[in-house]
Each structure stands twice: as structure tokens, then as C-alpha cells.
Amino acid sequence: MLKLVKYLKDYIKETIIGPLFKLLEACFELIVPLVMANIIDIGIKNNDTGYIFKMGGIMILLGILGLVCSLTAQYFAAKAALGFGTALRNEMFSHINSLSFSEIDKIGTSTLITRLTSDINQAQVGVNLVLRLFLRSPFIVVGAIIMALSINARLTLIFLVVTLFISVVIYFIMSSSIPHYKNVQNKLDRVSLLTRENLTGVRVIRAFSRQKDEIKRFEESVDDLAKTQLLVGKISALLNPATYTILNAGIIAVIWFGGFSVYGGNNTQGEVIALVNYMSQILLALLALANLIIAITRASASAIRINEVFAVTSSMNEGADFSQKNINNSAPKVEFRNVSFSYNEAEEDALSDISFTAENGETIGIIGGTGAGKSTLVNLIPRFYDVTGGEVLIDGINVKEYPFSELRRKISVVPQKTVLFSGTIRENMQWGKKDATDEEIYKALEIAQARDFVDVKPEGLDTVILRGGRNLSGGQRQRLTIARALVAQPEILILDDSASALDFATDLRLRRALKILAPKITVFIVSQRVSAIKNADKIIVLDNGRMVGAGKHDELFETCAVYKEICLSQLSEDEVKSQ
To answer: How many other CB atoms sit within 10 Å of the CB of residue 114?
Structure first.
């Protein structure tokens, strides 16, 4: 938790004022029993109504001052805690976005969401309670004991014994519950994972009629979480009865021995009542301290998980010495030199010894069986992952030497899974270029074969897209994501199986438009369809992560067995040979 204190640096004033006003409140609270003692010993004893009203007014004033101090402390503590939480969330979100795909894959999306939300909330609550109670509770305990000593040193021994016993009870209950709080957060990760899987995969679940199975799996996970929370609750539930039993025993002892002290003339009745009040204040302070310990424990468990994310650093560093002068315009636009790649903790390489070049304006088709490494290969071009062997070069410069912004400015990627954001069509199109004009957007829509269905929308570019593009068909979503990539005016366009929802005629018009209207763009087309890549300038054939062929369609059909097998599985020999 101490590692996260730095996020309070902009709220130093609040972190001082909050505890300070809590101490003032505690001072006023410690004075009240003495005022009550005077009311009993002087006002009631002498039947002095004026004195009673005077002291009563002082008690009301002390209560009002205490309330004002408490509200002030609450305000500044809440302000500091909220600022802490906001700064921490922003920093973690920024840190997560700095991680490469490798680190994000390793940690897991659901875990990152839990740590960004639930764990930071726990840390925020912990900071709030610390600022309010960390100084106040010990001050009340020590102050009440000192005040009791000033009244009767012998009776104060009862205070010390009661405080000791209550502290032991709190310690054992806390030590028993602390490990379970950590388990609660881990099991919450599991619930978050299942929730995310079910919400994103709801269509697949219903298609296979697996709702009951998924509901059962979710219920088991939630029940496991509930059992752990109930166990912690049962342990914590022992706190109040145990401490109140000890307190009441202490109050009985104070009244019993205090009675003898009053009878012997050593103390007054008001002083005994004051001692009872101080005993109650000690209990309340210790209970508040116990709640603080619980909050700190939960916050510490969450802080450990938060720090685990901050401890993960990106395996990819931006190029620092990049210069536009180093770009070699005569070099291939994209070049793979003996590239190998493996995912985290994978036993085998996903790609092995891949070498090829793509010239400016060329269309490169990439084809192969499922799991051949097609998407993996194109993900190395924008440096979503780092190669484990060899080099990937753009304009003659290793992609590792580029700053990320400069590298990805050159490249637009249309992934397999279409991703559209809530907002208008225009807002989605401007993701690639913030100041894109309507003319530029319409040109991109025309190339992507999306202009026709956008024009028939009553609102045109102002048509609202629901989250994930749920109010569009699969083909419409794919065409819009292609148009969004084209608006950015990239030098390299990667279409990662991004036309799978398009019919053959639309797919053909798209590829022809790319060649005619965007002739300078180097295009990579990843597809399972032979028809989508057969007219490419160069076709890369992958099989189990290895490049088994490279060339034009006719050449590969004659020389590459894997490519020929793929072609004949989709087309007749006449269709294969036709252009």
C-alpha cells in the first residue's frame, strides 16, 4: 500500500486537514464526560438548575463543534480518497495501454478489468478510512486512559485490562479473516471472467443451447465466492458480541469498585459515570480501529494486485533514434528476413524462418490452413508483437527502431473481429484521422463498397451506431472497418480475413477499387478464400508456421502442393485456371 501513497501527492493539504480535524473532534469528545461529571457532582447535588443548563449548553456546544470538525474531516478525507482513486485509475489505464499484446494476453482481460475497478475501489476506501481513523482511534484510547488516570489510578487498571482483552480478540479475529479477503478478490476475478465470456459469447451459447450449463457454471463460481465471503462475515461477526461482552464486564467492574470508592469518599458519583463513559469511548475507538484494520487489510490485498500490474513492463521499447532521413525509398516497403516468432510460454514457434519482400503498391495475399500463422505474420508488421528471431523492416528500417506512433501512422489494420464504437458513422471514420473531411470519408466508403448503404440511411454520416455495431449486418460492419482504415490514408493496409462476411461480388469490387483508387498502398490480404488472393501480385502460402510457397497464382498451383490442395478444395480446375 505504501507504494501507492505517491498518488496522494496532489492532495497533501487534504491529507493533513482531514486527520487534524478528526483529532479536534476527539478532543471535544474527551471533554464531554468531565462536563457530565460536573453536572452530577455540582448541579444535581446542589440542585443548581442554572449550573445544569450552563453545563448542558457547553455539552451542546461541544457536540456542535465536534460535528463541524467531523464533517470537515469527512469532506477532506473523501476529497483526498477520490483524488487518489482517480489518479490511480488514470495511471493504471495508461500503463495497461503501454503494454504489448504479449503482456495483456498473459495477464488476462478479465483480471485487468477487476484490478482497474474493484481493487482500486478497495484501495480508495482504505485511504478514506485511514485518513479519518488512523490518528483518531489511538488518540481516543490513549486520551481516555489518561483522563481516567486523572480521576482514579486504581480503577484505570480495569481500563488497561479491558483494552488488553479487546485488543487480543480483535487481533485473533483479524488474523483469521485476513487470508480470506485475498481469496475473495481472486474468486471475483473468476466471476468477472465468466461474466465476460458469457456476455461476449452469448450467441454461441444460445446456438448450442448451453444456457443451463453456463448458468450452472456461473452459479458454482458465485456460490464459491459467496461461501468465502460468508466465512469472512461469520468470523467478523464475532467481533461485536465478544468486545461488547468484555466491555460490559469492564463497566460492571468499574461500577462495582467505583461504588466502594464513592462510599469511601475517594471519588464522586459523577467521576464514576465519567469513567463508564471513557470505557465506552475506548470500546468504540477500538471497534473503529478494527474496521480500519479490516479496510487496510482488504486495501493491502488489492494494492498487491494493483502493484503486480504496475510491475509488468512492456517487452517492447520504442525506437529513440528514428529519423525520416534514414528511410530508404528504394528499399522494399515491407521485408521479412528469416523471421521466427513464438507466443508466451509456447513450446513451439508459431512462425519459423519467414523471408519475403513486398514492394510499394503491391498486393500480397496470405493463405494457409487454420492455425498456419497467417494473422500472427501480419501482426508483426505493426509490431503488435516482437519477433523472437530475424527482422521485420519497413522502408529499409527495422520496425523496432520506429516510435510506435510513427510506425502505426504508416499502417492501418482491419482485424478479423470487427470493432465499431458507439457514436455516429462519421465519428467512427475519424478514428484513423481526427480531422478527416466528409469528402475523404465518402471516398473511403466508396472504395470499401460501403457508400451505397450509408447513402440510404436518412441521417447519412450522422447515423448512430450502437455499441459493437449491433444495428448493422456483419458485412456492413466489415465494410465500415475497412473504410475507417482507408480514411487514415495508410501506406500499408492489412486486411486480416476482414471480408469473410462479404459476398464474392462485393469482395471482388472491393479489391478492384483498392487497386484502382488506392494504387500506392501496399495491401496485405489474409484470407481463406482462394478467389480473394488469386490475383495478388504475390501470394505467401503458410503451413504450420512455415512458408511453403511464394509467387503468383499460376506458378504456385503448379509448384506448391499445399496451395494446389487449397485451390482444388474450393474451386474446380477450370475456375482455378481462369483469371
So the answer is: 22
Look up residue 147 and give its three cell numbers: 483522563
- Digitized pLDDT (tens) for each residue of the chain, 579 residues in all: 778 888 888 889 999 999 899 889 988 988 888 888 888 888 888 888 888 899 999 999 999 999 999 999 999 999 999 999 999 999 999 988 888 888 887 887 778 888 888 889 988 988 998 888 888 888 888 888 888 888 888 888 887 888 888 888 878 877 777 777 778 877 877 887 788 778 777 878 888 888 888 889 888 888 988 888 888 888 877 877 888 888 788 888 888 888 888 888 777 888 888 888 888 888 788 778 777 877 787 788 788 888 888 888 877 777 766 666 667 778 899 999 999 998 876 778 889 999 999 998 899 999 988 888 898 999 999 988 889 899 999 988 888 888 888 888 889 988 888 888 888 989 989 987 888 898 999 998 898 888 888 888 888 888 888 877 888 888 888 889 889 998 988 899 999 887 776 777 888 888 888 888 778 889 999 988 888 888 889 999 999 889 999 999 888 988 998 888 888 888 776 666 664
Please name the amino acid found at residue 230. Answer: L
Please, what is the end-to-end C-alpha distance for the chain in angstroms?
A: 67
DSSP label at residue 437: -
Task: List C-alpha distances in Å: 277 to 241, 248, 249.
Answer: 19, 12, 14
Beta bridge partners of 522: 492
* Cα torsion 58, 64, 69, 73: sign: positive
What pTM was estimated for this model as a whole?
Answer: 0.70
Q: What is the rounded CA–CA span in Å between residue 514 and residue 388?
A: 33
Helix and strand counts by DSSP (H, E) for the chain: 22, 12
Structural domains in the chain plus CATH codes: 11-311 (1.20.1560.10)
Interacting residues of 287 by C-beta distance below 8 A, sequence separation 6+: 239, 240, 243
Measured at the CA of 395, the angle between CA 391 and CA 399, to 5 degrees, comes to 40
Q: How far is CA 235 from CA 74, 242, 572, in A?
A: 29, 11, 73
Q: Which of 18, 16, 131 is nearest to 69 (CA)?
A: 18
Own/partner long-range contacts of 541-544 (Cβ < 8 Å, ≥24 apart): 541/367, 541/368, 541/566, 542/366, 542/367, 542/368, 542/372, 542/373, 542/374, 542/377, 543/368, 543/369, 543/372, 544/371, 544/372, 544/373
Contact between residue 483 and residue 475 where contact means Cβ atoms under 8 Å apart: no
Q: Which residue has the cell 508466451?
A: 344
Name the strand (E) or helix (H) holding 166: helix 153-200
C-alpha cell at 465: 451506431
Give the Cα separation of 472 and 475 in Å (integer). 8
Cβ atoms of residues 3 and 128 within 8 Å: no
Tell me the pairing of strands 492-496 and 423-424. unpaired
Contact 344, 106 (CB under 8 A): yes
The answer to whether 490 touches 458, Cβ cutoff 8 Å, is: no
Cell numbers that stand for 361 in this block: 503498391
- Give CA torsion, residues 516, 520, 525, 530, to 10 deg: 40
Type of residue at 399:
V
